[in-house]
Design brief:
Elements lengths: L2 H19 L2 H13 L3 H17 L5 H9 L9 H21 L20 H16 L11 E6 L8 E8 L9 E10 L8 H10 L7 E8 L19 H18 L3 E8 L4 H22 L1
Helix pairs in contact: 1-2, 1-3, 2-3, 5-6
Length: 296
Amino acid sequence: MTPRDQAGHVRDRLLAVLAQRGTGEAIAGIDALALNFPSSGMTRRKAEAREARLARWTAPEPRHVVLLAQSNDARIVLSDAHLQQALMASLRRIEKRLQENSAPAVRELWNTREKPTPKYEEELSTWLKGRLVEDLGVGGRVIGRELEIRPNITGRGRGESVDIAVFAPVGTEVESAATASVTIEVKGCWHADVKTAMKSQLVDRYLTGTSITHGIYLVFWFAAEDWEPQDYRRRRCTGDLQNLHDTLAEQARRLTAETHAIVRSFVVDGSLPPAEGRARRIRRSTQRVFRTEAQS
Protein backbone atom coordinates (compact mmCIF):
# COMPACT_ATOMS: atom_id res chain seq x y z
CA MET A 1 0.00 0.00 0.00
CA THR A 2 1.42 3.33 -1.06
CA PRO A 3 1.44 6.42 1.17
CA ARG A 4 -1.35 7.84 -0.99
CA ASP A 5 -3.43 4.70 -0.42
CA GLN A 6 -2.80 4.94 3.32
CA ALA A 7 -3.88 8.59 3.41
CA GLY A 8 -7.07 7.72 1.53
CA HIS A 9 -7.79 4.91 3.97
CA VAL A 10 -7.34 7.24 6.96
CA ARG A 11 -9.62 9.82 5.31
CA ASP A 12 -12.36 7.25 4.71
CA ARG A 13 -12.15 5.92 8.26
CA LEU A 14 -12.36 9.45 9.72
CA LEU A 15 -15.51 10.11 7.71
CA ALA A 16 -17.00 6.82 8.84
CA VAL A 17 -16.29 7.55 12.50
CA LEU A 18 -17.73 11.06 12.12
CA ALA A 19 -20.92 9.69 10.53
CA GLN A 20 -21.32 7.08 13.27
CA ARG A 21 -21.37 9.76 15.97
CA GLY A 22 -24.76 10.96 14.77
CA THR A 23 -24.56 14.30 16.56
CA GLY A 24 -25.76 17.61 15.14
CA GLU A 25 -22.14 18.80 14.84
CA ALA A 26 -21.12 15.60 12.99
CA ILE A 27 -24.00 15.93 10.54
CA ALA A 28 -23.20 19.59 9.91
CA GLY A 29 -19.54 18.70 9.28
CA ILE A 30 -20.37 15.96 6.80
CA ASP A 31 -22.92 18.18 5.04
CA ALA A 32 -20.23 20.86 4.62
CA LEU A 33 -17.75 18.33 3.21
CA ALA A 34 -20.36 16.91 0.84
CA LEU A 35 -21.11 20.40 -0.42
CA ASN A 36 -17.45 21.10 -1.18
CA PHE A 37 -16.49 17.58 -2.35
CA PRO A 38 -19.63 16.02 -3.87
CA SER A 39 -19.46 12.30 -4.60
CA SER A 40 -21.52 9.15 -4.20
CA GLY A 41 -19.38 8.28 -1.19
CA MET A 42 -20.20 11.57 0.56
CA THR A 43 -23.89 11.08 -0.19
CA ARG A 44 -23.66 7.70 1.52
CA ARG A 45 -21.93 9.22 4.55
CA LYS A 46 -24.68 11.85 4.84
CA ALA A 47 -27.29 9.09 4.96
CA GLU A 48 -25.25 7.13 7.52
CA ALA A 49 -24.95 10.19 9.79
CA ARG A 50 -28.71 10.74 9.78
CA GLU A 51 -29.36 7.06 10.45
CA ALA A 52 -26.94 7.22 13.39
CA ARG A 53 -28.75 10.25 14.81
CA LEU A 54 -32.08 8.45 14.53
CA ALA A 55 -30.60 5.43 16.30
CA ARG A 56 -29.47 7.65 19.19
CA TRP A 57 -32.95 9.07 19.71
CA THR A 58 -34.92 7.59 22.57
CA ALA A 59 -38.68 7.84 22.36
CA PRO A 60 -40.41 9.43 25.39
CA GLU A 61 -41.92 7.05 27.89
CA PRO A 62 -45.74 6.78 28.06
CA ARG A 63 -45.81 8.61 31.39
CA HIS A 64 -43.91 11.50 29.84
CA VAL A 65 -46.43 11.72 27.00
CA VAL A 66 -49.23 11.88 29.60
CA LEU A 67 -47.45 14.69 31.46
CA LEU A 68 -47.02 16.60 28.22
CA ALA A 69 -50.74 16.30 27.51
CA GLN A 70 -51.63 17.49 31.02
CA SER A 71 -49.36 20.54 31.10
CA ASN A 72 -49.37 23.51 28.75
CA ASP A 73 -45.75 24.42 29.51
CA ALA A 74 -44.10 21.01 29.87
CA ARG A 75 -41.20 20.26 27.52
CA ILE A 76 -38.94 17.39 26.61
CA VAL A 77 -35.39 18.59 26.00
CA LEU A 78 -34.09 17.09 22.77
CA SER A 79 -31.65 19.81 21.72
CA ASP A 80 -29.93 23.04 22.71
CA ALA A 81 -32.79 24.94 21.07
CA HIS A 82 -35.38 23.09 23.20
CA LEU A 83 -33.43 23.88 26.36
CA GLN A 84 -33.13 27.54 25.36
CA GLN A 85 -36.90 27.71 24.76
CA ALA A 86 -37.59 26.13 28.15
CA LEU A 87 -35.32 28.66 29.87
CA MET A 88 -36.95 31.63 28.12
CA ALA A 89 -40.40 30.40 29.18
CA SER A 90 -39.12 29.96 32.73
CA LEU A 91 -37.70 33.49 32.79
CA ARG A 92 -41.07 34.90 31.73
CA ARG A 93 -42.78 33.07 34.58
CA ILE A 94 -40.16 34.19 37.10
CA GLU A 95 -40.48 37.84 36.13
CA LYS A 96 -44.28 37.67 36.25
CA ARG A 97 -44.17 36.35 39.82
CA LEU A 98 -41.78 39.10 40.94
CA GLN A 99 -44.60 41.65 41.24
CA GLU A 100 -47.65 39.40 41.72
CA ASN A 101 -47.36 38.24 45.33
CA SER A 102 -48.94 40.16 48.19
CA ALA A 103 -45.38 40.51 49.50
CA PRO A 104 -43.61 41.12 46.17
CA ALA A 105 -40.65 38.82 45.61
CA VAL A 106 -38.87 41.68 43.86
CA ARG A 107 -37.60 42.82 47.29
CA GLU A 108 -35.25 39.83 47.14
CA LEU A 109 -33.28 41.69 44.48
CA TRP A 110 -32.59 44.66 46.76
CA ASN A 111 -30.35 45.20 49.76
CA THR A 112 -32.62 45.51 52.78
CA ARG A 113 -31.01 48.42 54.54
CA GLU A 114 -32.68 51.78 55.11
CA LYS A 115 -31.34 53.25 51.86
CA PRO A 116 -32.22 50.65 49.21
CA THR A 117 -29.77 49.58 46.51
CA PRO A 118 -29.99 46.67 44.06
CA LYS A 119 -27.85 43.67 44.80
CA TYR A 120 -24.68 43.13 42.79
CA GLU A 121 -24.46 40.87 39.76
CA GLU A 122 -22.98 37.90 41.63
CA GLU A 123 -25.91 37.93 44.07
CA LEU A 124 -28.45 38.40 41.28
CA SER A 125 -26.94 35.46 39.39
CA THR A 126 -27.19 33.22 42.46
CA TRP A 127 -30.80 34.33 43.01
CA LEU A 128 -31.66 33.58 39.38
CA LYS A 129 -30.08 30.15 39.54
CA GLY A 130 -32.29 29.27 42.52
CA ARG A 131 -35.45 30.52 40.81
CA LEU A 132 -34.68 28.54 37.64
CA VAL A 133 -34.18 25.35 39.65
CA GLU A 134 -37.49 25.91 41.46
CA ASP A 135 -39.49 26.84 38.38
CA LEU A 136 -38.27 24.13 36.03
CA GLY A 137 -38.69 21.49 38.71
CA VAL A 138 -42.36 22.32 39.31
CA GLY A 139 -45.04 20.15 37.73
CA GLY A 140 -42.64 18.31 35.46
CA ARG A 141 -41.93 21.31 33.24
CA VAL A 142 -38.75 19.66 32.00
CA ILE A 143 -39.80 16.05 31.70
CA GLY A 144 -37.54 13.12 32.40
CA ARG A 145 -34.40 15.20 32.73
CA GLU A 146 -32.00 16.07 35.52
CA LEU A 147 -31.06 19.69 34.92
CA GLU A 148 -27.69 20.97 36.06
CA ILE A 149 -27.68 24.72 36.66
CA ARG A 150 -24.60 26.34 38.10
CA PRO A 151 -23.43 29.96 38.37
CA ASN A 152 -19.91 30.71 37.24
CA ILE A 153 -18.21 33.98 38.18
CA THR A 154 -15.50 34.41 35.58
CA GLY A 155 -14.40 37.96 36.29
CA ARG A 156 -12.48 39.51 39.14
CA GLY A 157 -14.16 42.26 41.08
CA ARG A 158 -17.78 43.25 41.05
CA GLY A 159 -19.79 43.01 37.89
CA GLU A 160 -16.99 41.85 35.60
CA SER A 161 -18.53 38.76 34.06
CA VAL A 162 -21.13 36.45 35.56
CA ASP A 163 -22.74 33.60 33.72
CA ILE A 164 -24.98 30.62 34.44
CA ALA A 165 -24.32 27.33 32.67
CA VAL A 166 -27.34 25.05 32.13
CA PHE A 167 -27.00 21.42 31.04
CA ALA A 168 -29.58 18.70 30.39
CA PRO A 169 -29.11 15.18 29.04
CA VAL A 170 -30.81 14.62 25.70
CA GLY A 171 -32.94 11.51 25.58
CA THR A 172 -32.75 8.91 28.32
CA GLU A 173 -30.17 9.59 31.00
CA VAL A 174 -27.63 6.97 30.04
CA GLU A 175 -23.88 6.95 29.86
CA SER A 176 -22.50 8.90 26.87
CA ALA A 177 -25.88 10.49 26.13
CA ALA A 178 -25.67 13.79 24.29
CA THR A 179 -26.03 16.93 26.41
CA ALA A 180 -28.00 20.07 25.63
CA SER A 181 -26.37 23.22 26.97
CA VAL A 182 -27.12 26.94 27.19
CA THR A 183 -25.06 29.77 28.69
CA ILE A 184 -26.81 32.71 30.39
CA GLU A 185 -24.76 35.89 30.68
CA VAL A 186 -26.02 38.06 33.57
CA LYS A 187 -25.60 41.83 33.73
CA GLY A 188 -26.93 44.68 35.86
CA CYS A 189 -28.27 47.70 33.99
CA TRP A 190 -25.39 49.74 35.44
CA HIS A 191 -22.68 47.66 33.74
CA ALA A 192 -20.48 49.85 31.56
CA ASP A 193 -20.70 47.39 28.66
CA VAL A 194 -24.34 46.39 29.07
CA LYS A 195 -25.15 47.30 25.44
CA THR A 196 -22.08 45.67 23.88
CA ALA A 197 -21.28 42.64 26.07
CA MET A 198 -23.81 40.45 24.27
CA LYS A 199 -21.25 40.16 21.49
CA SER A 200 -17.96 40.83 23.27
CA GLN A 201 -18.61 38.43 26.15
CA LEU A 202 -21.50 36.05 25.46
CA VAL A 203 -20.86 35.40 21.76
CA ASP A 204 -17.11 35.99 21.43
CA ARG A 205 -16.08 34.48 24.78
CA TYR A 206 -18.57 31.70 25.52
CA LEU A 207 -20.19 30.75 22.20
CA THR A 208 -17.16 30.90 19.90
CA GLY A 209 -14.68 28.05 19.66
CA THR A 210 -16.71 25.87 22.04
CA SER A 211 -19.37 23.19 21.69
CA ILE A 212 -21.98 25.57 23.15
CA THR A 213 -23.82 27.62 20.53
CA HIS A 214 -26.99 28.74 22.36
CA GLY A 215 -27.01 31.61 24.84
CA ILE A 216 -29.27 34.03 26.67
CA TYR A 217 -28.17 37.58 27.47
CA LEU A 218 -30.03 38.64 30.61
CA VAL A 219 -30.06 42.12 32.14
CA PHE A 220 -31.55 43.10 35.49
CA TRP A 221 -33.06 46.58 35.20
CA PHE A 222 -33.99 48.79 38.18
CA ALA A 223 -35.83 52.12 38.13
CA ALA A 224 -33.18 54.65 39.20
CA GLU A 225 -35.59 56.71 41.28
CA ASP A 226 -36.15 53.74 43.62
CA TRP A 227 -32.64 53.57 45.03
CA GLU A 228 -30.11 55.45 47.08
CA PRO A 229 -28.86 58.47 45.08
CA GLN A 230 -25.32 58.10 46.42
CA ASP A 231 -24.89 54.63 44.89
CA TYR A 232 -22.46 55.10 41.97
CA ARG A 233 -24.42 52.54 39.91
CA ARG A 234 -27.59 54.61 39.95
CA ARG A 235 -26.41 57.25 37.49
CA ARG A 236 -25.48 54.48 35.02
CA CYS A 237 -28.99 53.04 35.04
CA THR A 238 -31.13 55.99 34.03
CA GLY A 239 -32.24 54.71 30.62
CA ASP A 240 -35.67 53.57 29.56
CA LEU A 241 -36.68 49.94 30.18
CA GLN A 242 -38.50 49.49 26.87
CA ASN A 243 -35.65 51.05 24.93
CA LEU A 244 -33.15 48.68 26.53
CA HIS A 245 -35.43 45.72 25.78
CA ASP A 246 -35.78 46.70 22.12
CA THR A 247 -32.06 47.43 21.69
CA LEU A 248 -30.99 44.05 23.09
CA ALA A 249 -33.66 42.15 21.14
CA GLU A 250 -32.42 43.68 17.89
CA GLN A 251 -28.80 42.85 18.80
CA ALA A 252 -29.77 39.24 19.47
CA ARG A 253 -31.51 38.95 16.10
CA ARG A 254 -28.52 40.44 14.28
CA LEU A 255 -25.94 38.25 16.03
CA THR A 256 -28.01 35.14 15.38
CA ALA A 257 -28.14 36.04 11.68
CA GLU A 258 -24.47 37.01 11.35
CA THR A 259 -22.70 34.43 13.56
CA HIS A 260 -22.95 30.75 14.33
CA ALA A 261 -24.43 31.56 17.77
CA ILE A 262 -28.14 31.40 18.59
CA VAL A 263 -28.78 34.28 20.99
CA ARG A 264 -31.86 35.43 22.88
CA SER A 265 -32.16 38.46 25.16
CA PHE A 266 -34.21 39.01 28.29
CA VAL A 267 -34.64 42.04 30.57
CA VAL A 268 -35.88 41.46 34.14
CA ASP A 269 -37.68 44.46 35.64
CA GLY A 270 -36.46 44.48 39.24
CA SER A 271 -38.03 47.84 40.14
CA LEU A 272 -39.75 48.16 43.49
CA PRO A 273 -43.57 48.06 43.54
CA PRO A 274 -45.05 51.44 42.50
CA ALA A 275 -46.42 52.22 45.97
CA GLU A 276 -43.08 51.58 47.66
CA GLY A 277 -41.10 53.52 45.07
CA ARG A 278 -43.50 56.46 45.26
CA ALA A 279 -43.39 56.51 49.08
CA ARG A 280 -39.59 56.61 49.05
CA ARG A 281 -39.55 59.41 46.51
CA ILE A 282 -42.01 61.42 48.64
CA ARG A 283 -39.87 60.87 51.77
CA ARG A 284 -36.72 61.98 49.97
CA SER A 285 -38.50 65.05 48.61
CA THR A 286 -39.79 65.93 52.08
CA GLN A 287 -36.34 65.49 53.57
CA ARG A 288 -34.86 67.84 50.97
CA VAL A 289 -37.52 70.46 51.80
CA PHE A 290 -36.77 70.18 55.55
CA ARG A 291 -33.03 70.52 54.91
CA THR A 292 -33.60 73.58 52.69
CA GLU A 293 -35.84 75.23 55.31
CA ALA A 294 -33.35 74.49 58.07
CA GLN A 295 -30.51 76.02 56.06
CA SER A 296 -32.57 79.14 55.33
